[in-house]
Amino acid sequence: MIEITRTRDVPGTPEEVAAAVADLERWPEWFALHKGWAGPVPTDAAVGVQFKHKVRVLGVPGDVAWKVARLDPPQRFVLEGKGPSRSKMGVDFRVSPREGGSTVAFTATIGGLAIKPIEGRLKGWIEARADRTLDGLERTLAAR
To answer: Count of CB atoms within 10 A of residue 85's CB?
Structure first.
């Protein structure tokens, strides 16, 4: 199992950050793993909501079926996913207040037997996507 955590100070109150993270329709603007929808575009994030989106991992396209596992605004937003070749994925956004804005901790996990042979290459790839995700979220929040 690969687990990557990145932390970033971003503009906006925790409520504004949580609203941006849980606005699934706007994910294409900032979520670096998102390459398109593979089904109906979700409108409301609520525990139990399921949706699919397209990803490209190390150049290989696939779909991830996500389920909102936890939603505790403005502190936490957790998704559990199932990807190609029985892989399991997760994203966990934790938001906390700080003077002048908020701090976001973003954790991405991926695991499964199909992942084992490429874990070394995959870890660096996920680290870069985690950084790009937070870059995009920061830009989205600054533009509001």
So the answer is: 10
Instruction: Kindly give the confidence (pLDDT) of every residue in the chain, 144 residues in length, as a single tens digit, with 9 standing for 90 and above.
Output: 999 999 999 999 999 999 999 999 999 999 998 899 999 988 889 999 999 999 988 888 889 999 999 999 999 999 999 998 889 999 999 999 999 999 999 999 999 888 888 888 899 999 999 999 999 999 999 998
Angle in degrees, CA 52, 38, 79, rounded to 5: 15
In the block, tokens 């700080």 appear at 98
Which two structure tokens, joined as six digits, stand for 88? 């399991």
Please list, in sequence order, all residues whose beta carbon lies within 8 angstroms of the beta carbon of residue 128, skipping any fewer than 6 positions away.
none
The letter for the amino acid at 47 is: V
pTM value is 0.93
Q: Where are the beta strands (DSSP E) in the chain?
A: 2-10, 50-57, 60-72, 76-82, 88-98, 101-111
Q: Are 34 and 27 in contact (CB under 8 A)?
A: yes
CB count, 10 Å around CB of 46? 9
- The fold adopted by the segment(s) 2-142 is Alpha-D-Glucose-1,6-Bisphosphate; Chain A, domain 4 (3.30.530)
Domain positions in the chain are: 2-142
